[in-house]
Amino acid sequence: MTAENWYNATLALKLLALDPQGLGGAVIRMRASPDRDALLAGFTPALPIRKLPIIISDEQLFGGIDLSATLASAQVIENKSFFYSPTITLIPMAERCPPALAAKLSQLADHSLTQGFLLFDEGIEADERTPDPLADRCAFHIEPEGRKPCVPAGTNQSVPAGSEVKTADAILQLTMLATRFGITSLRAPTLALRTARAHANLMGRNHLTDADLEVAATLVYPHRATVIPEDLEEADTPPPPPQSDDCPRGDNDENDAFPDADMLVEAVKSLLPPDLLNGLVPAGTTRKSGGTGAGQKRTSNRRGRPLPSRPGRLDGTSRIDLIATLRAAAPWQPLRREQQPNRSGLLIRPSDIRLKRYAEQSDRLLIFTVDASGSAAVSRLGEAKGAIELLLADAYASRDHVALISFRGAEAETLLPPTRSLVQTKRRLSALPGGGGTPLASGLQHALLLAQQTKGKGLTPTVILVTDGRANVALDGSANRGQAAEDSVAMASALRATGTAALVIDMSNRPQTTLQDLSRTLDAPYVALPRADAQRLSGAVTAALDS
Q1: Which residues are CB-neighbours of 492 under 8 A, at least 6 positions away?
Q2: What pLDDT is stored for residue 155 in this prediction?
């Protein structure tokens, strides 16, 4: 199977070299290696290959005004866009391509302004992948298994051409085949038909055959499939009646339209990944590209990743984008000089002002609010200690902060302020006490105050409530179970009003309806984990935060 995958990868690149614009391109999911270099050595298109960085600006991508030349000549001089001359676009590290850039490139491809893409996907995790808009417009997804064999399978084999297939029948057959595999995009059968025509051209034919359709289906459909078709049960289907020789078959006969439909289905199924259904990501959903620890994205005017500047007014706090401002004012200089001949220098209007913008991503803070009351406190606190230590092990890479609030007796207490220090956390956790009443409302109140404080410092807080739900101490410290429940709901409502994310973990032996109601008040996920250990608790937290 490894040799066959490498042969299909080589064949896909040969077909892409024949019709790069019609086939859209190829996603090559491989790390940089000699095998990838050897695979690309056989890709010899007629067009040159040009690398496009994922940090390209709009002026470089679409073209724009050459500011210095425009000011010097008093005429509008424009820079050429990246796609001014026909070229095959190579995008390294395509899994990190920003969604905005992917949308712009997809729009250019839809208007036939591009000549095909080579997308190098070097992601490791399943959620690190090329953006769907770009991948959907590429006919091929190349991900060969294992090391490259010395002689790929099929190199010296001659593929039988098979019988000729009409174009209309080929379109219908490829469309129906896409439907059986749950492929809803109409680009898939269109790209498959293009692939079949390119394969016929490669084989020196001017007409389509069954072999061309089989090659197209095996190269285009496996990575797009969302379901595995069930095998046809021939025993339940009565055999068709024999057809008389005197009755000619029409062009719309089903047997003529689909001469080898089952063969194409089996060809595609043979190349489906074994974990198709388990690893499938629903359309429209995304996950963090950098693993865990991503906080909220905010628009800033001081620091962070630069964003395109926008028109605005100078208010003393924003920073002006001088180049963009001059670029906006340059085309109007001749007209403004005619209106104001006595003025010298550049004529800048308020409408020309462009302000700098930056996108900064805040660090995430996990506020563990742990129930330390009752006889089972020791086991729960041990689980919380282990979970925090497991999360802190990755804190350096993910830039997560962790805080610990314990509530027992009459009120809650902040035992661990926000930190990423594993040594300090272990030292503080070792002295974590337990026993007494359950002041749940006080714990939520402390979490609310800490979340508001840390938001002002640029962190994105998430409250993780670990409790059995048996609140029996009110905010005023009195042992009043009814008032304690009302205070807990009030604090949960206040926490939700601030927009703080939360997670409720039920550590009781049986799921508590009061905690389920509390999670709905918090608008937070509810996870029931009786007898959970540190590993399960950490896994539940990670899964809930990533969902």
Answers
A1: 444, 518, 521, 522
A2: 45
Residues listed for the chain: 547
- How far CA 265 is from CA of 140, 194, 217, 269, 379, in Å, comes to 18, 19, 8, 6, 54
The structure tokens listed for 12 are 């896909």
State the Cα–Cα distance between residues 267 and 273, nearest whole angstrom.
13
Tell me, yes or no, whether 98 and 204 share the same domain. Answer: no
Same domain for 401 and 493, yes or no, is yes
Question: CA-CA distances (angstroms) from residue 60 to 57, 65, 82, 255?
Answer: 5, 10, 6, 53
Indicate whether 63 belongs to any domain. Answer: no
The pair phi, psi for residue 360, each rounded to 5°, is -115, 140
In this prediction, residue 263 carries a pLDDT of: 57
Contacts of 365 (CB under 8 A, 6+ apart): 400, 401, 402, 403, 418, 451, 454, 459, 460, 461, 462
- Blockwise average pLDDT, block size 10, the chain, 547 residues: 80 93 93 87 91 88 80 79 92 90 92 92 82 92 77 50 81 88 88 93 90 90 80 46 47 44 58 47 37 47 65 80 86 86 84 80 78 62 63 61 84 84 68 77 93 85 84 88 91 91 81 87 82 60 62
Q: Are residues 391 and 436 in the same domain?
A: yes
Which of 436, 513, 507, 413 lies closest to 468, judged by CA? 507
Show the CA angle centred on residue 255, arms to residues 253 and 256, nearest 5°.
Answer: 70
For residue 331, is it within any domain? yes
Q: Which helix (H) or strand (E) holds 175?
A: helix 167-180
Cβ-contact 214, 163 below 8 angstroms:
no
> According to the model, what pLDDT value does residue 47 have?
92
Q: Do 266 and 310 lie in a common domain?
A: no
Which CATH number does the domain housing residue 133 bear? 3.40.50.300
Question: Running DSSP on this structure, what letter comes out for residue 142?
Answer: E
Do both 355 and 375 map to the same domain?
A: no
Q: Residue 373 sits in which domain range?
A: 364-546
Give the residues across from 208 on adjacent strands.
165
Judge if 519 and 439 occupy the same domain: yes
Please tell me the number of Cα atoms within 13 Å of 442 on its side-chain side: 25
Asked if residue 3 lies in contact with residue 120, where contact means CB atoms within 8 angstroms, the answer is no
- On whether both 438 and 532 belong to a single domain, the answer is yes
Query: For the chain, first and last CA: distance in Å?
Result: 35
Residue ending a domain, among 325, 359, 393, is: 359
For 321-355, the pLDDT digits (tens) are 888 888 888 888 888 888 888 888 888 888 888 88
Query: How many structural domains is the chain composed of?
Result: 4
Write out the two tokens for 139.
């006919």
With beta carbons less than 8 A apart as the criterion, state whether 15 and 202 touch: yes
Q: Quick one: tokens of 377?
A: 């406190």
Residue 483: partners with Cβ closer than 8 Å, 6 or more residues away: 474, 476
